[in-house]
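Newbie here. two chains, one complex. Structure please?
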Amino acid sequence: MQEYLAAIDAALEQILSRNPLTPHRVLDAMHYSVFAGGKRIRPCLTLAFCQLCGGDPTTALPFACGIELVQTYSLIHDDLPCMDDDDFRRGKPSCHKQFDEATALLAGDALLTMAFESLSQAELPPERVVKAVEIFSRLIGVVGMIGGQEMDLEAENPDTRPDLDTLRTLCARKTCALLQASCQLGVLAAGGTEEQLSAAGEYAYQLGMAFQIVDDILDVTADPEKLGKPVGSDAANGKVTHVTLLGLEGASQEADRYTARALSLLERFPGSEPLKELTRNLLHRDY
Amino acid sequence: MQEYLAAIDAALEQILSRNPLTPHRVLDAMHYSVFAGGKRIRPCLTLAFCQLCGGDPTTALPFACGIELVQTYSLIHDDLPCMDDDDFRRGKPSCHKQFDEATALLAGDALLTMAFESLSQAELPPERVVKAVEIFSRLIGVVGMIGGQEMDLEAENPDTRPDLDTLRTLCARKTCALLQASCQLGVLAAGGTEEQLSAAGEYAYQLGMAFQIVDDILDVTADPEKLGKPVGSDAANGKVTHVTLLGLEGASQEADRYTARALSLLERFPGSEPLKELTRNLLHRDY
């Protein structure tokens, strides 16, 4: 995974520095947020699935960058005052605090746009690239990630608190959809089969559910220093989470179940030991 | 052009209604803004250039819809309080006034995302679709339309008022870039030559410059009823425009020159009479 990380950072640096521009405040803001300490889990998944399906992970780098650029845009827009109004992200000022709201808005828009530019640069058979654009745009659009953001806003309304089913749909859209895109774009880059595409999507769903539940648990139990943000913010905001609905013990068991299913789906991909380790680590992380 | 308009509206309705969703506030906001009375000039250009280059304009509809979805997203985000803070757009409440800021932000994000989904749906050779994604994403990204928005913000700062050269670069990015995408995606859909692609881009540049200068003039001279917004807002905001720098008479002559160059570029496209008429009408419009 260390090799993947270096390759991803170099590719991100390259796509962001391709364009010397005047003025360059928006570009600076894009760079600031892309290199603000993200763990690059999603683009690593893209490269890993490409390799698991017999492809050269280098060919999947433009897809992996697209995924990370979208992850970054979604965090910038999510932190804006009209959304979650978060002043900090991973212990650093969020984009609109470091720059300003208009710059953060445009930086998010530009990162989303650049993600598709990155996809178009892949040196792969064009039909695979078109399919990647199709799958990606649906999973991060109004039926996917953006729809999840909308449900998240709705969930904050005291009159429309989610039950467990609604919370699961919210999580499937908000968290799982981009993870599904991450894994499936790797399969696509390798020219994998429909079965592999579907198994990768299912793995990502189970992983995303486990990931979100662990997030909910950490908001209650984590060391704020390690987490890079205050703990207890969900409860303070009256937010309904898996912990609220299932209790700490119940949420923890639920995360275990999703993780077990994710691990069993990886059985279909020979050579997936490093990915199994990553999957276990995400469950047992403390930040 | 009337035929084009009907086909574009039907295709936009179809892509927006493909996804029955709960909740659907963001989808409602997308629909509200897409059908808020836009003149559909840009998607008409896409279909027109497809036809001029010997293609079937129906095959270019997914590209034309992508253009209009991006035009709509850019207006929604541009109207937000942290940007131009406009309460009205074409005489109707702007998206964040009709809904709310968070919904307008997400609706813009979702329209931008859906634009690329629309491109991916084109039933055209995949290499043309990939090229369309590449050209489109660059022209509407940080080196194009978004860069123009950034320059526009900078131009509002009393310490960095633009001179004529800077104003032209601003206009080339903010206004011309999306028009260039509109025309060039039509050429691409038809499988046109590199020469046609380049001439279409140059025509769009001249058209965009003329279009923006006429906009600047109308802000001074128009009937506010017809314009759908108050006149004199540029002057009230201390904004530097072609009218400020060249005077009404000088700006008008400048618009004439750009229009003449645009018309002469259309000479390279046999059968472009309707497009010439549209070009002249845009110069002589009163709203």
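Moderator note: The CA atoms of residues 80 and 101 of chain A lie 7 Å apart. The domain at 2-283 of chain A is CATH 1.10.600.10 (Farnesyl Diphosphate Synthase). Thread marked as resolved.
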